[in-house]
Structures are given as structure tokens and as C-alpha cells.
Amino acid sequence: MIIGEYILKSKFYIYICINKINEDMKNVFFKPWVGKNYLSTGIDGKKLLVLGESHYCGENCPTCGKLEVDDKNCREFTTNVVNGYLKYKKGDSEFEGWMNTFTKFGNVFYNKHLGLEEVQAFWNSIVFYNFVQSSTNGPRESPTAEEFTKSASAFFEVLKSYKPDLIIVWGERLWKQLPDTGEWGKEETIFNKENKRPFYYYTSDQKKIPTFSVFHPSSSRFDYSCYEPIHKAINYLP
Questions:
Q1: Of residues 202 and 29, which shows the higher confidence score?
Q2: From the centroid of its chain, how far is CA 45?
Q3: Average of pLDDT values for 7-18?
Q4: pLDDT for the residue numbered 196
Q5: Is residue 222 predicted with pLDDT exceeding 50?
Q6: CB–CB of 209/202 below 8 Å?
Q7: Contacts of 144 by beta carbon, 8 Å cutoff, 6+ apart
Q8: Which pLDDT tens digit goes with each residue over 134-169?
Q9: 200: DSSP letter
Q10: Phi, psi (5° rounding) for residue 212?
């Protein structure tokens, strides 16, 4: 009876949390992928937000990014993308070219080729979110400056809702377009060896959230040499 009551209370608590998060993310069009173990264990006890730039769709929908649109397929685009990738890794769907980006990031993150269970464990331990809240028409197409700017409020809502301990940014193009409302850290340790910069800190609900960038995983420059700065950053966290 006590166990049953505990399970019911836990489910009710999760239900309340999810509804509160949905209320707090009023400017988010593409809801983030949230791994089922993100809040409980994360990666070695740390909550990581992996920040991509944008989705590409190609359908050129006039309603893309409009918050009044309640199309679940659009709003759950990010979750569907990650689920599609995990289905492919299980052998339940066909390969698509963009999936190499996800595979490469996981492999470099752990400095080895990941097996199926390791891939599932990794993606179920993080939050993945694309910054720009409208899609582009192709994989190499950059969002406009206006689209980056308009997406800032949604980004801060995600930080408030999920309270990550570290943000890993995919690519220099996105890094240069992120809001400049934070502050540079004073760490002596260099996390991005090419750009020689410390963490950049955003503040959400009085929590300072360190942020740093890596080469985009689709780039040839993102290779196993990137393992060290990624884990240097994680190990620097308190």
C-alpha cells in the first residue's frame, strides 16, 4: 500500500511538473527532446543541454514557427527526429543522411564507437534542443538574423524549465548568434582550443549556466580530438 501510494504520488508530481514546464515555455515552437533519465541521473549526475541550430523541413509551410499552430507533428519535430534516429539504430527504420551527425556526436562524446544500448542511454540522459524556432528549407541553409533574434525568448524559457548544468553548442555559426546577455567566465582552463575562450555564463533563476561550443558534428573538424575539451568542461563543473 505504501509503495502504491508512492508511485501514485510520483506520477502526480511528474504530471504537475510537465504541465508547469508547458506553461513556462510559451514561446517555444519546437519542444525539446528530453531524455527519460535527464532529471534523475543525467550524464554522471550532470544535466546537459545539447544545443543545435535549426531544423530543416523543405515544405516551406507558412505556419512554421507560429505559436498559435497546434500541429503535434510540427511542435514535436525535435522529439520525432531523435526517436527516428533511435529507431534506425535499433533496425526499425531506414537510414537518412542527417543521422550521421547524431552518431558522430555520441561516438566523440565517449571517445569510442557506441553500441545500441550505449546510444540509447546517452540520448535518454540529455536534453536536445534546436535554438531557432522556425525551420529552414535545406540542411546547409542558415536562418536569418531575425529568426535567431526572435528565438532568444524561447531559449531562456528552456533554460528556466530544465535548469541544465552545462550547455554544449553545436557550431560556430550558432555560437555567434546566441544572445549576448550573459557574461564571460574567468576560468584559466581553455575549453575551446581553437578560439581560446572560457565558459560563457547565462543566468536563469539565479543559476549560472556555463556554455561552450564545439565544431558542428556534421563538420570534418569535429573528430575524436574534441573528446578532451568536452570532458574537460564537464569535469570542471562542481
A1: 202
A2: 17
A3: 44
A4: 74
A5: yes
A6: yes
A7: none
A8: 766 666 678 889 999 999 999 999 999 999 999 999
A9: E
A10: -150, 165
Better pLDDT: 122 or 73: 122
Could you tell me which residues come within 8 angstroms of residue 152 by beta carbon, excluding any fewer than 6 positions away? 179
Q: What are phi and psi of 129, to 5 degrees?
A: -145, 135
Nine cell digits for residue 49: 543541454
What cell does 39 get? 532529471
The single-letter code of the amino acid at 57 is C
Q: Find cell 575539451 and name the residue.
A: 229
DSSP code per residue over 65-134 = T-TT---HHHHTHHHHHHHHHHHHHHTSS---TTHHHHHHHHHHHHTS---HHHHHHHHTTSEEEES-SS
Give the position of cell 575524436.
Answer: 224
Complete domains list, the chain, with CATH: 28-236 (3.40.470)
pTM of the model: 0.86
The secondary structure of residue 135, as a DSSP letter, is: -
- Is 68's pLDDT higher than 70? no
- Separation in Å, CA 100 to CA 10, 57, 116, 139, 184: 37, 17, 14, 13, 32
CA dihedral over 85, 152, 196, 212, signed as positive or negative:
negative
The C-alpha cell 526499425 sits at 92
